[in-house]
Design brief:
Oligomer: single chain
Helix content: 40-55%
Number of helices: 7
Distance between the termini: 129 Å
Structural class: mainly alpha
CATH class of one domain: Alpha Beta
Largest sheet: 3 strands, antiparallel
CATH superfamily of one domain: Zinc/RING finger domain, C3HC4 (zinc finger)
Number of strands: 8
Length: 304
């Protein structure tokens, strides 16, 4: 079929060889990681957060996911390890003074540098565009380039001054190997937190049980029974008689205390009521005698 009219087919048109593997454009991959949210695939805008694996998200998108996890999202697999807001950290980023915004080349008559980053390293000045490795500190959320942390070795944050350790450093948008290591560290931290919680609950239960046993009242019958079992003969009878007599004496001593307390409370109430009544003109202390009453009527008469 075909090949008429002087057409000469070539070999690659007739013989089908193996398909070439499609390679992802590196520039497009860098743009997707460093300028777009890993969950909603929208442009990154403040506030920007990162997880324990070093991925970048818009905080609004993560909160929407946590509120409704059943909704369908384009890249929900990237957020399965986030259980709550405690698993993310808001980043303290440094703005790039040369960044003019997204619409600086609206007319198309200017050269647009794709690799221009919105943020830079506050120490070295490198742009956060994917060409240089960047890290953030879990303790404070400040972002630095890896070169700055290597050249200026300190245990204090360069930006805010908070202390940090090597375990607090998380690489942003790292390789697969680095992400696997960060995942192992994350699982270890969560396992330790679970063991601490279980220990605290056990300690609280152990503290509460002896307190309840101490606070439980003892029955008088049990004490008398124990005493009668230890004693023999006349001693048992004396102990049995002593039990009720002791209880009756304690009840008698408690009765006068309760009666005196009730009398005091009644007296206090009467005094308070009298003081309150004396504020009004209808009280007996406010009434005038017949000698004090005048023969004429005023606007505020005191005739009772």
């Amino acid at each position: 079929m075909g090949c008429d009219g002087g057409t000469i087919p070539k070999r690659h048109e007739l013989v089908k060889g193996p398909k070439k593997v499609e390679k992802v454009d590196k520039n497009a991959e860098l743009l997707a990681k460093w300028k777009f949210c890993a969950l909603s695939q929208e442009r990154l805008r403040r506030p920007i957060v990162s997880c324990e694996l070093g991925r970048l998200y818009n905080k609004d998108a993560v909160i929407e996911y946590l509120l409704d996890k059943s909704a369908e999202r384009p890249n929900a697999e990237a957020v399965t390890h986030i259980r709550g807001i405690k698993d993310i950290k808001e980043l303290n980023l440094t703005d790039n003074p040369e960044w003019e915004g997204e619409r600086r080349n609206a007319k198309g008559d200017r050269y647009e540098d794709i690799h221009r980053g919105m943020f830079i390293c506050p120490v070295v000045g490198l742009e956060m565009n994917g060409k240089h490795r960047f890290c953030y500190l879990q303790s404070c959320g400040c972002v630095f380039s890896e070169r700055a942390l290597k050249e200026v070795k300190t245990e204090i944050c360069h930006k805010c001054g908070d202390p940090f350790e090597e375990n607090n450093i998380v690489v942003l948008n790292g390789t697969k190997e680095e992400v696997d290591k960060l995942r192992e560290k994350m699982e270890e931290r969560r396992a330790k937190a679970k063991t601490k919680k279980s220990k605290k609950t056990k300690e609280a239960e152990s503290v509460s049980t002896p307190a309840e046993s101490k606070g439980a009242p003892k029955l008088p019958g049990a004490e008398t029974a124990g005493r009668s079992s230890t004693l023999n003969g006349d001693g048992s009878g004396q102990s049995a008689v002593a039990g009720p007599s002791g209880s009756s004496s304690s009840s008698k001593s408690s009765k006068p205390s309760t009666t005196s307390a009730t009398k005091r409370s009644i007296q206090d109430l009467e005094e308070k009521s009298e003081a309150f009544k004396s504020l009004f003109t209808t009280h007996s202390s406010a009434k005038r005698s017949k000698d004090q009453i005048s023969n004429w009527v005023t606007h505020t008469p005191y005739h009772f």
